[in-house]
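Morning!

This is the sequence you dropped in the shared folder:
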Amino acid sequence: MKRLTLSIAAALLCILFAAAPASADFGLKDLGIEFTEADGSQATQAGSHPYAFTTKLAVNGKIAGEEGMEFPDGELRTLRISQPTGMVGDRDATPHCSGADFVTINQETSKNACPDATAVGYAAVRISLFDGIEPGDPRTLHVPVFNLVPRPGTAATLGFVALKLPVTIDVGVSHSPPYNIAVSLADSPQGGQFLGSEVTIWGVPGDPSHDPFRGSCLDALNFSEDPVSQGTCKTSLAPRPFLTLPRSCSGPLTSHFEASSWQSPALVSGDASTPLGIDSCSELLFGPTIAARPTTTAAESAAGLEFDVDVEDEGLTSPTSRAQSDIKKIVTTFPEGMTVNPSAGEGLGACSLAQYNAQDIGVAPGVGCPEDSKIGTVRVDTPLLQNEPLEGSVYIAKQYENPFDSLLALYIAFENPELGISIKQAGRMEADPETGRLTSTFEDIPQFPFSHLALRVKTGPRSPLVTPSACGRYAIEAELTPWSGNAPITATSTFDVTSGPNGSPCPGGSRPFHPGFEAGSTNNNAGSYSPFNLRLTRSDGEEEITKLSPTLPPGVVGKIAGMARCSEAAIAAARSKSGREELASPSCPADSRMGRTLAGAGVGSSLTYAPGSIYLAGPFRGAPLSAVAVSPAVAGPFDLGTVVIRLALNLNPTTAVVEIDGAGSEPIPRILAGIPLRLRDLRVYVDRPDFTLNPTSCDPASTKAAVFGSGGGAPVSVASRYQAANCAALGFKPALKLRLKGGTKRGDHPALHSVLTPRRGDANIGKAVVTLPRSEFIDSEHVNNPCTRVQFNAGNCPKVSVLGTARATSPLLDEPLEGPVYFRSNGGERLLPDVVADLHGLFRIILIGKVDSKGGRVRATFDEVPDAPVTKFNLDLYGGKRGLLVNSRNLCAQKNLSAKLTLTGQNGKELLQQPALKTDCKKKKPKKG
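The structure's back. Tokens below.
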């Protein structure tokens, strides 16, 4: 914000006509500043308008020549004075003298044509000699100081004429905190013998008491120590304050002086302080108000922000009143539910601390804050710059590389090349880690009065904020702290949310939850490898997604043979990394990668999408395997870490359907580092080459899922139709080998050895019916103690219920599945107990064979065989005392002993065979001839 320094740095150079030798001891001395009242006492009241402000300055001098004359040790070239913090001036308190009038100089009087109403004080310039005067003691010249039309690049310009030579002084604002008024004089003409100056600027130039020394009434050719009046120069000028004292109380005020000489570019410096400090701050008024609202009245929608601060400060422009305190700190608390919008991350840049520090007038593009980090604008109106508001931009600061070392921060930058003003202000943003509620803090705000501040955060689909999710009235609250040191005040502004998202009706007491769900193979050719994709969506205004428990269609299985696993250490490492670290160096091995994810977060039509990967990992929460979704949470300039979600992965033991156990899986996070994710679109691509295998059944099926919402109610069941194609093109011709081993006589109990070998590339077996020859019966005495279902489920079957063993080898697994074969009761549904193969390994698969008699022959029917490829299946039943089967006749007396096999493929094809049943009967040796 631009304030005028109208404390003009005093030292104004007078050009003289004779030069004197100078040494290298150029320096400043006798520095002083003083605010005074009309009676000469010190002006100390905060926010008051002093009668005058005087700046004193002298340079080092030496005595030289026969006449013992004083000369400066170097000729002044540049001078810059940083005035006391908080002192401000109003450049429009008087009219402005035009450049033409300023340089129109009367050669006899050494006065210019500036109107008397433009005078704001006078300067006393001390010089050692000048034309027409006998050498001797230094002389003092008094000249009026005028308020000129500001030069381009300056906030204000002051000037005077000394010995017919116009001298201008630029008044601006320093470009770094605390943004004091700065007065500067550059490249003073050489040849002068300037020894010092005393510049007096009037606090209220329109005060009639200044009329005797106003403008043309000041004798500019009188060399007395005090100014000499040549009359009374009355004006119709309204008594508007030109200077205002700081509105904060502290010890003596300080000005900092810097100067250089023509003989040496090295800067010399010094400080000067007022005799007394500023007091009476407790009497200052302070009453800013705010008006704040999002740019939409729809619930849970992308929103910008309109934030206005208004200050009514009549004392700033009234000569008889004191100005209010400036705002030192603003802490704004937004209502619950008004949070950061993840949608804003896409395409958003950030301003680094180096770029923020470099932000200034005239910097090259890309040096200061980049354009893509801009999220809004700001405008400030001040009575001190009538009709010339200050305008600037609001930028997103780079996370953890800002003055607060915080995730969220803002930079506000004003730049006005016409006024030469560049002011920056950093603000901290905090988001509650549990709720996302936002609080912004701007402190140590520059001490410049303003009447109106308007901050506008951009609107549109990628606006940085989200409105609350329910209709109602909400409040934005600001705590404003004054520089005066008095207690802060609280200002509140309310706004209404009047509709649901996209203009829909206001949501009721509980939020709806109707997630969308799609799933399927990219190529549904039966028995082929194909990527499998899944997509879950929800609408704005609905409950958020917290968990997903999908079940794949029967026959959609993954080939994990030969795959690596992501270790526990690697998973822990991923959890500890930043998102960018994980992107640069994935924690899990590449050979454990099953696919990728794409998560869309935010509200409205434009989401921010973050890619991730899915890896195969080991046991988790009782499941034999797990899927690990690793998602670097990087969105635009923000890195919220790496989200790791572990999913319990299992096969249904009777159907071999792939299931992800929602209860045993980790939830999807709803908030990271205080930013609610608002997950709207989750896409999963299981696209590892030759990994996901399609079914060999073309029966209609579906991908199912239980989706859990943030409301805590029962999960919503969703499904997506699935059907493989071209099943009829698959062959089907498994081969079965049977052998009875052991006793062959009637009453013996032989063991049964069977090997089923499907062909690679054929349809998988869907149903199998095996009918034994009439020679084999079930020995009822050996099945009188079957395993009950309760015992089976508890893994506590009696040993006598074990009939044998089974073993299944699959190209999808590194190791076969094997386990015991039980005689298990079926709850009275059938006369005979079932034959149950309980296969264990990486997964558990249970094959149930229903046993009955068909035409006097023992028959076992396996109705539900999983649609999964098997290269070999072995089933062995014990013989002897533990044998299930008993010979009803002598096997060796039988010819063409065979079983009957009916196999049905998953594609519906049926195969009938009568495989020979081999025995241990010895072949008779032929007689010798």
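Headline: The mean pLDDT is 92.

More detail when I'm at my desk.
O.
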